[in-house]
Each structure stands twice: as structure tokens, then as C-alpha cells.
Design a protein that fits this description.
heterodimer; A: mainly beta; six-stranded mixed β-sheet; 11 strands; 54% strand; globular; B: mainly beta
């Protein structure tokens, strides 16, 4: 079945440093979504990418979808303590049997 | 609009018991998905319901079941609980099926002793 892998599993940064998490799928994806889960909270939708090579920005966050639609990345510029949490990517392979498969997430901690 | 509501918030059960978790989606949302979250395995898909029909199922044993009612509210049931069923169970709703962003509830934290 479809597998979605994320690296790194953990990342600790100093406030102000940049952060990147990578997502790789074993199959070509129809779309990829990113979610953030704060400690003790629930996942919250950040963004969806559907086009090959797509790049979207949300303030300090930049999301990319690979040309082959098998990988994606989330980059945060100049991290802040409010960025702490686990970032999940989730992809689906398309078709009528729609199912989002989540990566295991990257836990980001920020030292103030 | 109220968000996705899950009840109960916390649950403690013993091995062999059964449990029912409830999820009320955002008003107007017709698709409800369930996920199991554990520290080691991340978010694992259990099943998805749309228009009262199970549309998709993850790789979980038959002890895990669910249903959806005509008002889109959903329940999931786990029978013959095992220690390994201890997890955070998250419900997510979306407007329709496919390529829709998911809105998650706060989850039900199940502990099996």
C-alpha cells in the first residue's frame, strides 16, 4: 500500500533559525496536505498542494510539491516559539478510493 | 460554526471490554474519517463514512467498526479491547469526499488497562 515517509522525526532549533521537513511517497500523489499539531492539541490544516512543482507561501512558511508529485517539503524561515508542534504531511494517490495517508510527522521544538 | 465535537474526551477501560466513541462533524459536512494516533505509529487511518456508508477502511482488525447516521454524526466501536488499543482516537470531518481539507476534533484519549 501507499507509504508516506517524513524526515526528520525530530528537529530542535534555536529561535530565529530556519527549519525544513521533508515528505516522500512511495507512489505518485494526487495531492498533498500539511497539518500542524500543537502539543496536546489536534491536527490543524495548513495547506493543500495539487500541481506538479507547486510552491505556496504562508508568511514564514513555504510549501513545495515535487515535479514528480512524489515528494514535498515545508520550510519555516526564522522560527518562533509559536512554531512548536508536530508537522504532518498527508497524501492521497487519487482515484475513487480516496484515502489520505499521513506521514509520522516531524516534531519541532524551538529554544527561545 | 461549531467545530468537530468528540465525546468522551477521556476514557479508561479494561482489557476485554468494548467502547463506543462519538463524533459530531461540523454542520453541513458529510464525510467523517477516523484516525488512531499513537506515539510510535503516528496517525493511522481507520475508516471513512459518507452518506451513512463506509467508503474506505484502513488495516485494522474487525474489532474496530463504525457507523454514520443520517445527520452525519458518527460513532466508532472497539470490541474486546486490547492493551495496544490505547491511543488518541481522532475524528475528522470534511465537506465532501476527496481533496478536501480535514477538520479534526480534539479526540478521545482511550486508555486500556
Amino acid at each position: 500500500g501507499q507509504q508516506v515517509m517524513q524526515i526528520p522525526q525530530y528537529q530542535h532549533v534555536q529561535e530565529g533559525e530556519d527549519f525544513t521537513t521533508y515528505c516522500n511517497s512511495s507512489t505518485t500523489l494526487s495531492n498533498i496536505q500539511w497539518y500542524k499539531q500543537r502539543p496536546g492539541g489536534h491536527p490543524v490544516f495548513l495547506i493543500q498542494l495539487v500541481k506538479s512543482g507547486e510552491v505556496k507561501k504562508q508568511k514564514r512558511l513555504t510549501f513545495q510539491f515535487g515535479e514528480a508529485k512524489k515528494n514535498s517539503s515545508l520550510h519555516i524561515t526564522a522560527t518562533q516559539t509559536t512554531d512548536v508542534g508536530t508537522y504532518f504531511c498527508a497524501g492521497d494517490s487519487g482515484g475513487s478510493n480516496y484515502k489520505l495517508t499521513f506521514g509520522k510527522g516531524t516534531l519541532l521544538t524551538v529554544n527561545p | 460554526k461549531a467545530g468537530v465535537t468528540q465525546t468522551p474526551r477521556y476514557l479508561i477501560k479494561t482489557r476485554g471490554q468494548q467502547v463506543t466513541l462519538s463524533c459530531s462533524p461540523i454542520s453541513g459536512h458529510r464525510s467523517v474519517s477516523w484516525y488512531q494516533q499513537t506515539p510510535g505509529q503516528g496517525l493511522q487511518f481507520l475508516f471513512e463514512y459518507f452518506s451513512e456508508t463506509q467508503r474506505n477502511k484502513g488495516n485494522f482488525p474487525g474489532r474496530f467498526s463504525g457507523r454514520q447516521f443520517s445527520n452525519s454524526r458518527s460513532e466508532m466501536n472497539v470490541s474486546t479491547l486490547e492493551l495496544g488499543d490505547s491511543a488518541l482516537y481522532l475524528c475528522a470531518s470534511s465537506l465532501e469526499r476527496g481533496r478536501e481539507k480535514l477538520f479534526f476534533g480534539s479526540g478521545t484519549q482511550l486508555s486500556v488497562l
